[in-house]
Amino acid sequence: MLILINTLLDTPATCFGDQVLGHWKVEISEFKTPQNDRVDCDANFATKKIKYFELRAPNVAIDEDGFYGTWTMGYIQAIQVRLGGLDYMWYFNYTETPLPEIKQIRVNTYCTQHLPTQAWVHEEGVAAPKHACIRATNVKPLLDNTTNETFKPAPGPVNDYFEVDGRQYKLLPRKLQKKVEYGRKKAPKEQPLTSIYSGDKLPKNFDWRNVDGKSYVPSPFDQKKCGSCYACATSYMMMSRYMVQEKTTEYPMLSVQHLVDCNEYSQGCGGGFGEHVGRFVEDHGILTEKDYGVYEGVDKACHAKDLKNADRYYFTATQPLGGYYGAITDPVEMQWELFRNGPMAISIFVDDVYFRKFDPYGFDNSVILDEENKNRHYFYDEVNHLVLLVGWVTEEITVDGVTKNETFWIMQNSWGTTWGPQKDGTMKIAMGYNSYGIESGPVTTYYRSSGAFRPKAPVNSFYISTIVLGVLTGVFAIAALLFAIMFFQRKKTTAYEQVQ
């Protein structure tokens, strides 16, 4: 078995959460309905509207009118803001300078600027809301230092694939050294299994592949040479949560190829993020393999426009657990989410030493930086692969002559059905140590069982009552007038007859 770490990036941008805080100006183009499940932006679009809002820690967004919403980092490459009925997303701008003398490429990332043509906004809601292109600029950043310089290897003969038994699997970008929240420490070796909710208790063992003899997890996927693990893990989470929510072991085989071909928020076989898959599915729905086609493991032209009457499945609130990147990394909270709502997509770092040996403890290269360190930033973990978390198991182990109980996560990979120490597509990873970064970025989603919807503008109940009362008053007034006329006519006729 040979492991070679990926040297290609989806985007090489590197920004941290504190570097995006401040006052943003966002120029917006004309809103239009997307075509062919895509929105292609022109960097020179005409500005139709300008919005201003402030991003505050940890995830609060406030606009110029005082309305508030939320924001989250898309790992260290992008940002997403939900505010005032609109959902914004953009990648950070960067430049690359080849340095042939050291066989490196210098990357300068500008955390106050969007990446041209890679910035969008759409109306909140599910099912093809109207989209627009944007230009985003942080006109008043909180920090002085908002530019990062990093390096990546120059193109060369180095393979960027993980090879397993003759098969090659492309990994996602390898980034900088891991940085974590200030003062964060490793969790206890034995995690308590009681919740903050009195009376609740987690089982010592739980596996969505065997719940009373039934499996709510599709068989392991094979992503092949395409760097589509983000699409594989997220779509498999969606299929699993569909089964859990609908209380069935039958599921639609969702098309990973649809996500690879059509999702403008990701880079196809070049990589992407689970929450950006969810954004695409919330916009357009995801097609099935039966309609769109089976997975081929290569980038192809999107042909969703030819499938207007095909079945689409919608999911909503696909986001980091807790609502923003780094919000929840507590293993017990992850267990509860997994236990209550189904498997989760999680990020890990695949290395060329421990992961190759299926070492359940791996490594945690977390670094705690003090306040004097100029590189001190908000939460960030280095990851390069997305997998599916399906359960946990508690086992008795002996270390240095001492016997104890240890709990392990069960994660399902996308490298075929025979990968792993048990040749079943899965691997155990120790819980509570953040081994391989497994507890750094869990992603959740929820199936929209009633299908697509678009939010309607709320109507004030006072105005409804006023309108109804006005209509009723008018009806009674007209009825009274008619009655009076009829009565007068009757009285007039009777008097005339009497005179005659």
Q: How does this model look, in words?
A:
The protein has 500 residues and is α+β, with helices and mostly antiparallel strands. Helices cover 18% and strands 29% of the residues. The protein has 3 domains: 152 residues, Lipocalin (Beta Barrel); 277 residues, Cysteine proteinases (Cathepsin B, Chain A, Alpha-Beta Complex), CATH 3.90.70; 38 residues. The strands form 5 sheets. The protein has an 8-stranded antiparallel β-barrel. Strands 13, 17, 18, 19 and 20 form a 5-stranded antiparallel beta sheet that branches. β4 and β5 form a beta hairpin. It is globular, with a radius of gyration of 28 Å. The N terminus and C terminus are likely disordered. It comes from Hexamita inflata. This is Dipeptidyl peptidase 1.
Find the CATH topology of the largest domain.
Cathepsin B, Chain A
Indicate the percent of residues in helices. 10-25%
Distance between the ends: 121 Å
Q: Do you know the CATH architecture of the largest domain?
A: Alpha-Beta Complex
Shape: globular
In the CATH hierarchy, what is the superfamily of the largest domain?
Cysteine proteinases
- What top-tier CATH class of the largest domain fits best? Alpha Beta
* Cα Rg: 28 Å
- Uncertain regions spanning at least 5 consecutive residues: 1-9, 173-198, 454-464, 491-500
Assign the structural class, choosing from mainly alpha, mainly beta, alpha/beta, alpha+beta, or little secondary structure: alpha+beta
User: Helix count?
Assistant: 6
What topology, given as strand order, has the largest sheet?
2-3-4-5-6-7-8-9
Mean pLDDT metric: 82
Tell me the major beta sheet: 8 strands, antiparallel, barrel
Fraction of residues in β-strands: 25-35%
Number of domains: 3
Care to count the β-strands?
Answer: 21
H/E topology pattern: EEEEEEEEEEEEEHHHEHEEHEEEEEH
Keywords: Membrane, Transmembrane, Transmembrane helix
InterPro entries: CathepsinC_exc, CathepsinC_exc_dom_sf, Papain-like_cys_pep_sf, Pept_cys_AS, Peptidase_C1A, Peptidase_C1A_C
Cofactor: chloride
Subunit structure: Tetramer of heterotrimers consisting of exclusion domain, heavy- and light chains.
